[in-house]
Amino acid sequence: MTYHESLPAGLRPLKVAMISHSDMLGGASVVTYRLMKALKAEGVDARMSVYNRLTDDASVRQVGTAGTRGVRFAWERVRIMAANGFRRDDLFKVSTADTGFNLSHDPWIREADVILIAWINQGLLSLDDIEALGRLGKPVVWVMHDMWCLTGICHHSLGCTRYTESCGRCPLLHSRRDNDLSRHVRERKMKLYDAVPLTFVAVSRWLADRCAESSLLAKRDVRVIPNAFPVDSFVIRPRGELTVLQGDLDHDIILMGAARLDDHIKGLPMAVDALNYIFDNHPEVAQRTVAVFFGDLRSPAALHNLRFPHFHVGRINDPNLLRDLYARSKVVLSSSLYETLPGTLIEGQASGCLPVTFGRGGQADIVTHLSDGYIARYADTRDLAKGILWALDQNVDRQALHESVRRRFSSTSVARSYIELFNQLVAVK
Fold it and tell me: What distance in Å separates the CA atoms of residue 414 and residue 154, rounded to the nearest whole number?
C-alpha cells in the first residue's frame, strides 16, 4: 500500500517542491530525480525546479533563461578566482552561494507543504534565496550530498579540519588570511541557520558524523536517510556475452567506474598501483582476471602505467549495458579518497558483486568488512590489493547480497523514510 492509498478518503496527498541543480547532470542530481520518482510512486505530489533540465519530465522545470543562468554561474566563479589569486586548479572544489534565483514567489513553491533542497550551488540558489524560502513558513529540508553545508566553502574538506572551528586560511583558496572568503561565507551560513529552522538530511552516517564535528551544524537538526537506488533493476544474471568487451570473456572482472575516472577524488593512481602489485606478485590471478573501467578520462595516459589486463570502455549511457556489466563482474572497486555514499558500490552489491574500497566516507554504511565487502586501510594500496584478492576468492550468494541491498537502499524504503520525516515536520508546523 502506498502513502496515498493509506490516507483517509478525501485527504489530499503531500505536496513537495524539490530544488536541485539538475535532474540528470551529476550524481547528486540523479539521486534527487530518483527520489522524486520514488515519492510520486508513493502518491506524493513531488515536483522539481532545476538549473539544468535534461529530461522531458513534466514534473521538472528549469528556472531562468540561458542568459540569466550563465551570468549567475560566471559571477560566482569570478568571485572565487578573485579570492584564490586567479587560480583554476581548485576552482570547482568550492562554492559561495552568493548568487541565484529567488523562488519564493514560484507557484510550485508556494503551493507546497514541504520544500526540499538538494545540491544548489553554481548559480541556482544563494544563501539569501534560501532564507526567502524559509520565510514562507514551510518546513525546509536540505539534503546534503557532500560537505558544503557544514564547511565554509568546500565540497570536501580533503583532510582540512578548520570547519570544526571557524574556517579561514583556506587551503583551497591558497589563503593565509584568517578573515578570508571561506570565513566570510561560513559566517553568512551561520546567520542563515540561525534565522531559518532548516532540517538537514545526511545521506550517510559518515557525513552526519562530520556534521557533529562542524561548528556550523553540531547543534542543528540532522537526520540520516540514504540515497534511493533502483535496486530491482539490478538483477542477478548468469555469465554471458558482453558486447562492450567485444565477446564472451571467460575471466573474472574487477569493475571500477565514475563519471570522470581521473577526478583526483576517485584516487585512480592508487587503483592502478594495487592492480599492478597483483600483476607483479600474483601472476596466476592476473591470468584469469581483467579490470574494466567505465567513465570519462580527460587524459587517456591515466591508465598507461597499468600492467594488469584491462579495458576502458568509456562512458556508458545505456543503463541495460551497465547492469549487464555489473552482473558479469565479481568485484566492484573504489579507490576514492572521499565519498558520501558511493552509488557504484551499492549498484555492485545489488548485482551480486563484492565491493573493495577505502573507508573514509559513506562506504561503512554499505560495506561490512570481510562480510559483504572489504574496507582497506585508508590510502594503503597494498591493503587495497589484499582486499581485491580476498574478494576474488569468495564464493558469494549473489541473490542474498541483492536482497540485503534492497532492504537498505530501495527507492520504496527511502521514499517512505522521507514521507515519515515530511509528515513529522508538517505536523509541527
Answer: 27
CATH of the domain at 182: 3.40.50.2000
Give whole-number Cα distances, 83 to 91, 93, 128, in Å. 10, 13, 21
- The 10s digit of each residue's pLDDT in 307-338 is 999 999 998 888 888 888 898 899 999 999 98
Question: Does residue 244 register a pLDDT over 80?
Answer: no
Q: 540515497: which residue's cell? A: 227
Same domain, 255 and 375: yes
Q: Which residue has the higher pLDDT, 142 or 11?
A: 142
Please say whether the beta carbons of 55 and 25 come within 8 A: no
Q: Where are the beta strands (DSSP E) in 94-161?
A: 114-117, 140-144
Please tell me the total count of domains within the chain: 2
Q: Which residues contact 384 (CB under 8 A, 6 or more apart)?
A: 270, 271, 274, 335, 356, 358, 376
Q: Across residues 350-356, what is the average pLDDT?
A: 95
Report whether pLDDT(429) > 80: no
How far is Cα 335 from Cα 387, in angstroms, rounded to an integer?
11
Short-list 111, 113, 105, CA closest to 132: 105
Pair 156, 181 in one domain: yes
The string of pLDDT tens digits covering residues 43-68 is 999 999 999 999 999 999 999 999 99
Report pLDDT digits (tens) over 273-312.
Answer: 999 999 999 999 999 999 999 999 988 889 999 999 999 9
Q: What is the pLDDT of residue 235?
A: 76
Q: Specify whether the CB–CB gap between 133 and 109 falls below 8 A.
A: yes
Query: How many residues are present in the chain?
Result: 429
Distance of CA 384 to the CA centre of its chain: 22
Alpha-carbon torsion, ordered 226, 231, 234, 237, to 10 deg: 120
Cell representation of residue 333: 572497486
**What is the rounded distance in angstroms from the CA atom of residue 164 to the CA atom of residue 82?**
25
Quote the CA–CA distance of 152 and 170 in Å, as a whole number: 9
DSSP 8-state symbol, 281:
H
Give the pLDDT of residue 189.
98
Question: Range of 270's domain?
Answer: 231-408
Alpha-carbon distances of 158 from 46, 148, 175, rounded to whole Å: 35, 12, 16
Residues 87 and 186 in one domain: yes
% residues pLDDT > 70 (the chain): 94
Q: For residue 119, which of 139, 148, 91 has the smallest C-alpha distance?
A: 148
